[in-house]
Amino acid sequence: MPEGPTVRKFHHLVSPFVGQQVVKTGGSSKQLPPASLQSLWLQDTQVHGKKLFLRFDPDEEMEPPGSSPLPEPAQKEAQKKEAVGAEPTSGPVRQEPSAGSHCPTGLAASGSEPLGADGPAAGALQWLQVRFGMFGSVWVNEFSRAKKANKRGDWQDPVPRLVLYFSGGGFLAFYSCQMSWSPSPVLTPTCDILSENFHRGQALEALGQAQPVCYTLLDQRYFSGLGNIIKNEALYEAGVHPLSLGSLLSAPRLEALVDRAVEFSASWLRGKFQGQRQHTKIYQKEQCPAGHQVLREALGPPGGLQRLTWWCPQCQPQLAPEEPADQAPHA
Length: 331
Ligand SMILES: [Zn+2]
Fold this sequence. Notes:
Elements: H1 4-14, E1 22-26, E2 41-48, E3 51-57, H2 72-82, H3 113-118, E4 127-140, E5 162-166, E6 171-182, H4 200-207, H5 213-217, H6 228-238, H7 251-273, E7 295-299, E8 307-311
Antiparallel strand pairs: 1-5, 2-3, 3-4, 4-6, 5-6, 7-8
Helix pairs in contact: 1-7, 4-7, 6-7
Bound molecules: zinc ion (ZN).
The site of zinc ion has 6 residues, from loops.
């Protein structure tokens, strides 16, 4: 599925439609009939990790359209700072690792409160949660076109799951995604690697667990928005073997790993807005930048998702298990 920076770009594409009414719908979604969005107003959009949230309401809000002129990161951070009232979330069951983490504590989104507090739809499922598949995408005012013929030689264009035509004359097309109604999105900016509220200490604590760091990095409870590409690049940049146990890495190594993950994600996001492709050094490469042969293997927790992982055995040597020499507390 697309990683945090890509979903932030989708969010940026959707944002200009906030304040507009859905005047026509289309798309192949069965689970969520597109027609159910007819005549609703898009009132807000948020991005959390790899998920995109769209808030719909039957009525036009008091707030005039276009009252959110800030670029999305600034705007979102401003909203998060205003967030008040901790509220336990009803998310999936969380298994607290021994290291512990404070991340699951969510904050209710402040953006929805003025409406939810006195509106008829208080507590209603107003937020459309969009989770993108591997080839998920959002298109604005145009449809995705077939890039090649299928096996029968037909040039069949991809079918959008959802198409929303807005009162302003434009439209959005969503491809390869799952949609469901959800309560107010849970704000956990402290887990979101692209949030300025990302809590480094919390991330370091999680990463220091006695399990391979390449598993922990993909754990969305601690590294929301971090996907397989960022994982591979951060490990390479930090010179850390993917199967290194976090508990055996020194504090500076763990810090380097978190920093490289954050830097790579931020650079990827910047590139997205400048129309640049993110350059990778190890992901899907045969050789590392130093010219060494790269190894590739599917790695993941027992019984969990195995993800293809690329690493350079020379630039990212494996620590001997009996060698916790540089271990240091990293509180
Ligand atoms: Zn190398």
